[in-house]
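I'm stuck. Protein, please.
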Amino acid sequence: MLKFVKGHMESILGIEIYPLISLIIFFTFFVALFLWVFTAKKEYINKVSNLPLEN
């Protein structure tokens, strides 16, 4: 099955750009998430973390 998929993918022109685009989107998302976590205000983090316990 994998040989069929690999053979079919190799016949498509320009297919090699899609893994690169996927990696860039993945990397950008996690870098942005990492920056947001370390720059978030402590008051906001405490407020959001206590939301399930308020009721």
